[in-house]
Amino acid sequence: MAMQILATMKGQFQAKELLRRCRGFSQVADRETIAHEIESPIPKMPLFDYAPPPYDGPPAAEILQKRKQFLSPSMFYFYNNTPLNLVDGKMQYLYDDTGRRYLDAFGGIATVCCGHCHPDVVKAIVNQTNRLQHSTILYLNHAITDFAEALASKLPGDLKVVFFTNSGTEANELAMMMARLYTGCHDIISLRNAYHGNGAGTMGATAQSNWKFNIVQSGVHHALNPDPYRGVFGSDGKMYAKDVEELITYGTSGHVAGFFSESIQGVGGIVELAPGYLPAVYSSIKKAGGLCIADEVQCGFARTGSHFWGFESQGVVPDIVTMAKGIGNGIPLGAVVTTPEIAEVLTRRSYFNTFGGNPVCTAAGHAVLKVIEKENLQENAHVVGSYLKERLNSLKDKHETENSCKSRNTARDGPDERNGSVDWQRWNFWKCFPHYTSTLLFQGRCRFPCRCYGLHNVKDVKLPMKLKHLTLLDSCYATDLDV
Ligand SMILES: Cc1ncc(COP(=O)(O)O)c(C=O)c1O
């Protein structure tokens, strides 16, 4: 069915008229380049039936000035010259204080999965807020149990016990602690180029220097990244898995608490793990007495399109799954799901979290699950993502030829990647997208509200899964023009 829709759509989009219209979509994000825009044919965004109310808040300059005065200098923002003052959101679009519409190609960092301000999610939040905003899990309330039941039904095997947290970092901290308690071991193996959060333990599991402060981070060993594109063993998942075996043999007592990995590295630049990697590693970890933990903070909740959870693409069942971001479509919410046996370890002391399981957040989370199902967002992500992947691959072929780049290895090993004839920034972007649906190449000339760069020069773009075929395909054509 999905492929049929795709074929029909492709046919439609080959029509010259439509292509011309699609070409109009490409626009600049920075106002500095507006002059150039005026010289080009005026681009048009696809029609959209929503007009935000007029903005009556303070001007962007005032907000920026207050931000500099009262907020931590560590809080960076995009578009340094003219930071965006985003004041409204509707489905896949964001609006600035002038009412200008932007296609949100970042989805609040892979968080807005149903679309901004989805009416069902908003309604669930408002209804619950009107009745009871907070009570803590020390009392009964059906919002938390209803959502826990619905969430558990989405997970395989014995993964049926849910702990709610407020963020992905908290969820991962809890998962690390449970693995250590359950196994009686301290050593955890995670992957180079991973991002698991910035708490005391999770910063240790995170393996990108720009997110690691110079503080004590103990008990985590970082294995070779099974990056099929840049990794030392190409896409040979079993060879990378051997590195984990060696870490266990040479870097630990032979027993470990667990193995932590994203199923697709998000912050690291949308890197899929080499095929066959997780089954091989999970087997070594189990032999060493450890637990396998899947961090689904970015790639869970149907974002990959092919599966609801990222780990399913490698055919494994983890012992602990952590989640956040897309779980709440923007509401602060995270969760750890594990088996009843592992969950039991937390009864050794009291584990409590004031806001974890808050009724407003869990009501929102439940609404998100319902929207994903009701609106077939997983299928939508699959259809749109597959088409996007195909288009990006065709761009790759085109630019490989034009730039005399013969293979991925040429790129990986090339001595003059950045200053040779290869336009590295443009040539290499395609690699970050396979299967990672709801992502979209963007260029400076596209009208997207983010400029986030992942690993090296990868353009790291994550759309709301709500994005409809037409608008995404429009964007693909637009980006074609820009490459
Ligand atoms: C894979 C992954 N795990 C954990 C986290 C941390 O989540 P949070 O920022 O909600 O603490 C992130 C955040 O980007 C993430 O991408």
UniProtKB/TrEMBL annotation:
Q: Which GO terms describe its biological process?
A: photorespiration
**Keyword hit for Transferase:** no
Q: Which GO terms describe its molecular function?
A: alanine-glyoxylate transaminase activity; pyridoxal phosphate binding
Q: Which cofactors does this gene product need?
A: pyridoxal 5'-phosphate
Q: What reaction gets catalysed by this protein?
A: glyoxylate + L-alanine = glycine + pyruvate
Query: Does the keyword Secreted feature in the UniProt annotation?
Result: no
Q: Supply one GO CC term from the record.
A: mitochondrion
Q: Which UniProt keywords apply?
A: Photorespiration, Pyridoxal phosphate
For this chain, the family text in UniProt reads:
Belongs to the class-III pyridoxal-phosphate-dependent aminotransferase family.
UniProt-recorded name of the protein: alanine--glyoxylate transaminase
The taxonomic lineage of its organism, from the top, reads: Eukaryota, Viridiplantae, Streptophyta, Embryophyta, Tracheophyta
